[in-house]
Design a protein that fits this description.
The chain is mainly alpha-helical and 204 residues long. It is built from nine helices and three strands. A three-stranded antiparallel sheet has the order 1-3-2. It is globular.
Length: 204
């Protein structure tokens, strides 16, 4: 019994038959330390940017966080989106987005209006309060983004966004926009050039 347990822990003949034939490189990925994983680095990077955003916002005496900013920023190009349209654009799950929107509605940052042409749909709009908040946070977002991307060339930024797009594409199963299968990043690729071009001076 002890020999079988030792063999299993060492990945020998006593290992799980389901993983016995797994490629070596896959097993190496599993054995990576937590701080070597891509999820760790992405989360840590996001938290670093979020903390910087919070600090800058506090210096302006603005009561918000990066989560609220990301939601409000999604309305810059188009308002009147439904919850389904908004979550698809932001890549979020509807339950989480719905809860966040309820909090923002309670704070007077968004308002919901029934679509007069299709009363089954509820469309979401910004309020005057949220527009003021957006204007106040624009310089903060630009400053944080500039700091985050300091020292990157346009080519490096393009490669960075492409790599992130490819990671998302590996998990996607298809969307209404036609992108989704591994390696299919047409929608993201179409917007990458403009995104890189405005990365330094624009808002995050």
């Amino acid at each position: 019994m002890r020999n079988r347990i030792a063999a299993a822990s060492a990945g020998g003949n006593g290992s799980n038959p389901k993983t016995r034939g797994a490629p070596r490189k896959n097993m190496d990925v599993v054995r990576m330390h937590a701080d070597e994983g891509i999820a760790y680095h992405l989360r840590d990077t996001y938290r670093t940017i979020a903390r910087a955003f919070q600090v800058e916002g506090e210096s302006l005496d603005v009561d918000t966080d990066i989560g609220v900013w990301i939601f409000l920023r999604s309305f810059l190009r188009e308002e009147g989106l439904t919850l389904k349209e908004l979550t698809a654009r932001m890549g979020l799950m509807q339950p989480g987005a719905s809860a966040a929107l309820k909090q923002m509605e309670h704070r007077g940052l968004v308002t919901k209006i029934i679509d007069p042409e299709d009363r089954r749909k509820v469309r979401i709009f910004l309020t005057p309060k949220s527009r003021e908040l957006l204007n106040a946070l624009m310089p903060t977002a630009a400053k944080v983004l500039q700091q985050a991307l300091s020292g990157f060339s346009k080519q490096e930024l393009s490669s960075l966004f492409e790599f992130l797009d490819r990671i998302r594409a590996n998990f996607a199963v298809g969307t209404e926009m036609g992108a989704g299968k591994p390696g299919t990043i047409g929608v993201a690729k179409a917007t990458r050039a403009s995104r890189v071009g405005r990365a330094r001076p624009g808002a995050g």
